Each structure stands twice: as C-alpha cells, then as structure tokens.
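Lay summary. Proteins are chains of building blocks that fold into shapes, and those shapes determine what they do. In this project we predict the shape from the chain. Here is one chain we studied, written as its sequence of building blocks.
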Amino acid sequence: MLKKEEIISLYEKIEQNDYDLKTEAIAYCKNDCFVLHKIIEYFQAETVALYKIKDKRHVFDIIPNLTTPQMSLNVFRKMFQDSKFNLTVPTNTKEIEYIRGSYRGALCEVYVPETPKGYLTMEFDYVSKYAEVMSTQAFPTGEGKYVKDLFFDNGKIYFFDEDKKCYCEFFGFANSIVEVPKSLNTPYLYLHTANRGNVAPTGTFSSLWPSTDILYANSIGTKILKIKDGFHYDKTFGIYEDYVNFHFPLRLANKNNPKGKMTKLMLNSLYGKTGQKLFNRISMSVTEKQFYIVSQIMENVKIHVELPEIKMYYVSFDKSVNLKNITNIIKDEDFSKLIINTYNKFAKMEQQWRNNSLPHIAAFITAYARQDIHRLGMQIKYGTWHAADTDAVHVSFNMEDPNQKAEFEYFKSLCGENIGQLKHEGTFYHVKFFAPKVYARYDEEGRLLPELSRFKGVEAKYRELLFNNMTSEGVSIEYEQIIKRDMKHLSHNVKKVTQKFTFDWNKRILTEGGKNSRPLHYPDDFLPEERIF
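And here is the predicted shape, written in a compact code that computers can read:
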C-alpha cells in the first residue's frame, strides 16, 4: 500500500505531465512478477516443510502441480495411499452409466421461504463435513460386479453371489423402484430432471442411487418396492483416514495463517478431484478460414475468444465427430494435421484424467454428506427448517417457546471446533429464501445486510441492488464492462451491460400464500417429458 506522501508525489507528477503510464505500467508488471515468484518460493518451502513432518525421506515438489486439487491427489497417492486399497478406475461403459446416474449433488433445498414473525433464523454448518465422511465412512473399491434380482430385507440389500453360492450384502449402485409417501414433507431421494435439476418428490418412481441412499431413505419412511439390478463393490473403510487425520489438526492449529488456509484447501480439494468429469469437448485456436471449416463440420461449436483484428478465434466443439471422416473432408493438409494432433493431445489428457477419476467413491462421499445434512434437519421438531445448503441448515426458533428454545440449546450443544461438529454461523432477525443459495438477510430495523446475504454467482457489491429490486420473475441490473483493450495505446472501451438474473421456484410447490411449500408429487406435478428417467 502506498504511503500518503507517495500518493501526493504521484499526483504532483501527473499534474506536471511528468508521469509516463507505459513506463509505470511496465515497472508495476515487473514488480508483480517478482512478488508472485517470491510467493511461489515461500509456498514451496512451506509445502516441503509440511510434508517432511509426514515423511522426512520424501521431498514433495509443488512445481509439477498446476492446481491445488492436482497437488492434493498427488500428495495422497505418494504419501498416504495404502497399497492394500484397490482403487480401481471404472472402465465398463454400463458401470460408468450406473455410477454417473447415481451421482447426485449436495442437499440444496428451500422448504419454508421466510422467517415467521417473532422468530430468529440461524445458520448452522458443519466443520469439514466432506473431509469427515471421507475419514470415517466405507467406500466402494475393486472392480464393480454386475448383479441382478436384488432384494431388501430388515434394513439391508442382498443378492445371490453365483461364485460364492450364497447370499451377500449388496454395496454399490442400484436401479430401484421406490414409493415416497405424501406425508413426508422433506423427502430425501433425488431425481435428476433436465428442467429442474435435482428434485426430491413424493410418489412412486425409479432411478439409480447409491445403496446407502436407498437404505437411508427407507429409514425415514420410503418404501423399497423393487431393486432391479446394480453394480456391487468391496466395502472398504479407512481409505482417506490418514490423509484427513494428518491435515485437519494442522488446519485447526493454524486457522489464522497461510498454513491453515493451505491445509483447508488440501482437505477440500481431494474430494473434488475424485469426482472430476472427463473431457467431452476439444479446444483449439483457429484462423478465420479454419473457423469457417470447423463451424461447418463440427458439432456444438462455441467461440470463447474472438480477435477480429488478427482474424483468430479460440473455439471448442464436441469430440463425438469421427476423426477419420473429418480428415477426409478437410482439404488443407496442414489444418488436417493440426486437428489430428489436437485430438491426440486431448486423448492423452483424457487418459490422465480418467486415471485420476474415482466417481464411484465421489458419489458415496456426496451421499454420506447429503444424508448427514438431511438427518440433522429431520431432528427439528419444534422450530422451522427453512433450507439446506450443501453443508449447512437454516433454522428458525421462537425463543419465547420453551420447546423451541430447548431445541436451539440442543443445536448449540452440537457445536465445536472438531471435525464433524457444528458451527453456529449467525443469528438473523429476518431472512427471505428465494431459491437454493439465494437469500436476503435483514437486521432488526428491516435493513438489508448485503454482505451477509447470498445470490449465487453475484458479487457482494451488486446484492443490495438485486434484492431491493427483486420480483417474482427475477431482477435486472445494469453495470459497466470493459469490452476491448488496446494495449498499444493503453486505452480501453467501456459499455453498459444489462444482465437479468432469474430463478425458478420449481423444485417444490408454494402453499399458504407463499409462506410454506410442499414437495412435488410424481407423476402429477411433473411435465410429460420429465416422467422418464
């Protein structure tokens, strides 16, 4: 930060025309690069020191790791992964279909849209929930085995193992038919729809789910009518236990310094790496002539960067088109070679990513976390459960009611700094929930608290404008955006942009004049095209 006298001196230079923007900009960029280099050096030294605690013989080099998720995976593999765990990467097409079809996101729901009069709304979230389930729960390992004619009995799923000639407990991903009673106001099992995303309805329907999801849903009232088939795995505990138990205490002991932030990132990043998606698009730079060819023969072409002054484009397109057909069509030999080399590069990268991806484990991690959030919300008997938000619940209590006050005290008793405990993030006089991850918080005088409100994907500086102009259809805001920079003359163009933010209340149906809601019922509340899964 500049000192006051330096700022005054800078103003004087500008007034005397003794200030060259280009010279100053170059000096600034050089200094920026120097500082960044020092930060990388410091980060590497801290990382080496950190992992020497685990293994003094091993020096971990951060340089080959371009991202924190990549680094977390490499740290896990080199320093924590036990060879006894069979972390097989799924390759069977049908198996991958069952895994991906069972992979649901976090629990993000709004049940009651607004704080009742006289209540206080509180947010409780978990301390490292995903890391906790990674260290304590069982995960599918080994090669998936396709099995049919499964059945449910006394809280467990079974199948007949032809090899062992006996009935075995099933653990994996299953294609099931279930019946969720209308009396269940906060159903658990998600269906994925094209228009609404994940929806938890009542009614009778079928889909793919992790076996742990099916069993939890049954424990809260869902009937399991039939389990058609599925992929069974070995049930393995302890895969990530050492990794989490090493990083979490360091995070706890270093909350207010860079080491604490780094260990927190390392805890959170490994889960995401296990569930990363594989490549389904190709990206490349093309000339104007090449862009015309690409737009004619490739599918779903998108322009990401356009440089008309030099007639260049950076584009992406689906990789589903047959490479041989493309090279036969393209007459430009150099461009044909460029396409082949680009395809081969992405094929190599995809194989590397495929070796990193363990979607069957990631699906179970998400399922366990989702169950714990839902289980916590289901414990609310006297207060009001407003919303679930990934690893948090939003709950209202009337402190004049002894039962609700006691329930609040129970929630407070679950709070602590240890992994898997709750944190009481705040208490608010009034909250309006417009959609999952979209809510406005107000103080005692009814004034909006923009920094404490949330509108997913929107910077805090725009939130007040958004929430103050909210309608049932959404809201529009206008702001300035730089659209073109001319680095040669050190200038840029600015235009005003109007952006409309919309949200759909389409996961549940509002009741009581918008004060409450109920689940969608399948198939009555679904569009015809949404009734096939």
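What the prediction tells us: The chain has a mean pLDDT of 86.
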